[in-house]
Amino acid sequence: MLLKLTFLVPLFPLIGSIINGFFGLKLGEKKVGLIGSAAVFLSFITTILVFIGFLLLPEGEHVFEQSLFTWMVAGDFHVDFGFQIDNLSLVMMSFVTGVGFLIHVYSTGYMHGEYSFYRFFAYLNLFMFAMLLLVMGNNFLLMFIGWEGVGCCSYFLIGYYFEKKSACDAGTKAFVVNRVGDFAFLLAVMYIFSIFGTIDYTEVFHAAPEKLIFGGEVVTIITLLLFVGATGKSAQLPLYTWLPDAMEGPTPVSALIHAATMVTAGVFMVVRCNPLFNLAPDTMLVVAFVGAGTALFAATIGMTQFDIKRVLAYSTVSQIGYMFLACGVGAYTAAIFHMVTHAFFKACLFLGSGSVIHGLEGEQDMRKMGGIKGDQPITYMTFLVSTLAIAGIPPLSGFFSKDEVLYHSLMDGNIILWGMGISAALLTAFYMFRLVFMTFHGESRVDPSVHVHESPKVMTLPLVILAGLATVGGLLGIPLFHGWHLLHNWLEPILHFDLASALQHSEHMLHEAGRHAPVWSHLLEKEEHNVWLEIFLMLFSSVVAITGIALAYIFYVKRPDLPDKLTEGQWGYDIVKNKYLVDELYDETIVQPTIEGSKLLWKECDARGIDGAVNGVARVIGWFSDRGKAFQSGFVRNYALFIVVGFITLLLIAI
Amino acid sequence: MELLIFYPLAGFSLMLALGVVMNKSPIGSALCLIGMMLGLAGIFALQQAHFIAILQVIIYAGAIMVLFMFVIMLLNLKGTDTKWRARERNTLLTVLTTFLALGVLYKVITVIFEFNLDSPAKVPDTFGTAAVIGETLFTDFVLPFEVASILLLAAMVGAVVLAKTKLD
Amino acid sequence: MVPLAHYLLLSATLFMIGVVGVLVRRNAIVVFMSIEIMLNAVNISLIAFDKYMNQHDGQVFSFMVMCVAAAEVSVGLAIIISMFRNKPTVNLDEFNIMKW
Description:
CATH topology of one domain in chain C: Helix Hairpins
Order of helices and strands of chain C: HHH
Shape of chain C: elongated
CATH topology of chain B: Four Helix Bundle (Hemerythrin (Met), subunit A)
Number of domains of chain B: 1
Radius of gyration of chain C: 17 Å
CATH class of chain B: Mainly Alpha
CATH architecture of one domain in chain C: Orthogonal Bundle
Helix content of chain B: over 70%
Oligomer: heterotrimer
Structural class of chain B: mainly alpha
């Protein structure tokens, strides 16, 4: 049985991490890189084997659970350490291990000559382990362990250059901001346990339509808490601020953790919990608007940044906003589809930017780049392909996935959501090509002392593969023709939701509670799939993307002086450039008061109140002891007398 | 009949016990103690506990008391404590102690006589022989027995270490 | 036949004599001997009850008591010897450095 190999998938990276972490210093760079990459490669191969095993399952079985051992039992609380293999987790596992492997290979080149090479690979492997736990766990608690594990590794890797203060601060910021979301997630898990008495996915999702009232308060609170958790991990409004700062870490980390895998964990979690989210239309609306809002908001900031990695970071925030928009309108397939294609092209973009930075000997400011397409042809080509993909130019992958998101946001959502989405698409095309033009085209603004060179093969090969995937990834979900959407068919068993029966249950429950059910009949009306509208939208978004590219071309190739002229003295531009002053706002409203409050607590409460009480108690006891020490005469027979007196007293009381 | 043996033995033991406490010189105390041990051995024998009676003679009167003697001789202790009666007769300690002791004794006696203890079990002839006790010792109490041997070993090592002139 | 109460009475009296000895005497060796008296007093009641109830546990226990007594005496006398080395006396009242 190939499915029995499931537990090996996360085990390989864990072993790799242990070997590299404990013995890496002695092994030397080559072996460390080999072990780190091999661990993930083995994990990838095992995933494929498990995939084959899953395909061989008899008709009608969509879930395989492997329970390794009982993790903890306390009263009714019972948690297994088990893995759940189903259509969704297989998709996640495949691209996490696949993209992860390519990035590991790339890292062996990128991190070459670093002082603590082994540490990097130990963390990276540990991250793979945690991420796989997150996607493979069969209960909420295991997901939470993975969730915290990836957060922890993210903290380690952002602060990888720990001698740099900015890197340390960025790591701390990521950790603390994530904590807000994690807390909400934990609350949601506890709430789920208190309602269902279990935290096993299968049992919870099976019982959900029967125990929760459609649109009721309970399910709305649970899903909102889950979503707050997702906003923390996936850098959505209002908790997105950590992600741009996280670019202090090494570039492969940005590619793996802060673009392809970890930050999409929130989306994965929402999709995983779709049986709950489906029952909470209010939450769905919040999710959709937060997603669309983030997509637009981050895109505007992305237009004004000059650090190549920060632009990509804001782009990531924006693209994840799209995924949440898709989730919010119930198009989970589109969310996963966009997640997969985004992993391909965004990993490629990040690795490409890493290659550029590597070639320019550490320069990250786009104002000091330009005209290097001749020096880095492979990087340029792959970067361009991925940029076209993210901008949504047909027939590259990003076009299909983004288009599906936009189509569903119009059909299942409303015109406002679609408007925000399409505006963000325009901005995306613009800022991504701004990036390409400023970096690769035009006149060279590179420091003359730097010799620009193409990166080694271990770095360019993953780029080429990822660019290839970014090109053909769209084939997973060909629109228009019914039955050609592979991903949709594949995820159908996971996303199947019987709204009618859920509504019936809710009505029944409300009736028993003596309340009237609202009118839900309009929810059951289903709009037909409108092929012509979809074609029109496709054409429209292509035009939008091309417009964005054209604008970028005018601004940054034809008339490079134009941007400065236009933005000169515009207060609006300054605000956007300073990221809407959100960081400053948080600093003023949350960070500073917390620090002030802590100081107050420290000086007044702790130093004076608590320490005073403790010292006071000690002093009182000392006073009594001073009086009582006369008993301790030091004469042995006195002590014997005390013993006898005590013994006799006991005897007289007892008899 | 047995009472005729018991009373002299008990009186003898009590007298000698008082002698231990009240004797001026440690040697005298030690000699009284040996006598008391022998008296108690007689009382044990009277209760058919032959094995224990023998042990009492061998271990207490033989081994332990010899050790006491050795130490007293070694330290060359004569009547260093001679003036204790003069010094402590008037102190609160003696009065208090005696009073307490008598009070407790009274209490214990009343309690003893409160219970009806006049129905002893029928005892077989083999009671208290080495064979029977040995069997109990090596079946039900084999673990405590082994632990006791370890205790003795530890005591031996401890005594050697403590009595050494220099710790080096 | 000697009644059980007689043995218990003897045991209690011997025990109290031992207690008084421990409290009143200053000579460390005599204090030790008084402790031996107390141990023996306990053995009397153990064996008396044993006979009364026709079992052997009490005798095994008095055997253990003897073991403990032997161990205690050997260590105790060693302590007295090392005390005597520090200060040439066995008067317990001279040793009062245990106080505050």
